[in-house]
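Now read the record:
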Amino acid sequence: MNPENCWYTQEHEWVRIEGDVATIGITHHAQQQLGDVVYVDLPEVGATLNQHQPFGSIDSVKTASDLFSPISGEVVEVNSAVTDDPAVVNADPFGQGWMLRVRPSDLAEADTLMTADQYGLYTQES
């Protein structure tokens, strides 16, 4: 359920690093806990993200939550499909439901995140 090629945060975001670009989204577990996503607020291209700091918000029929960046860097792409149709986050959180693409400023930050196995254990315990 949690792709092996991603890193995970305690706040239930994931990051997949490919070359010099990192793709960020929320996990399957997060979208299940939120319920039907109705709104996503994301930063603009060019914004600077700091690891573990809020970069936007997500609203569902149940609650509103901040989104936290798994890594620091500059936003190079925003997924307009998510802002146009937030339900895509529920349908495909690791695929079409990605939120941002970022140029990381420090790839070593990924080493502080959880692996898929660690995240799986974390979600079972919480």
Q: What stands out?
A: The chain has one domain: 9-106.
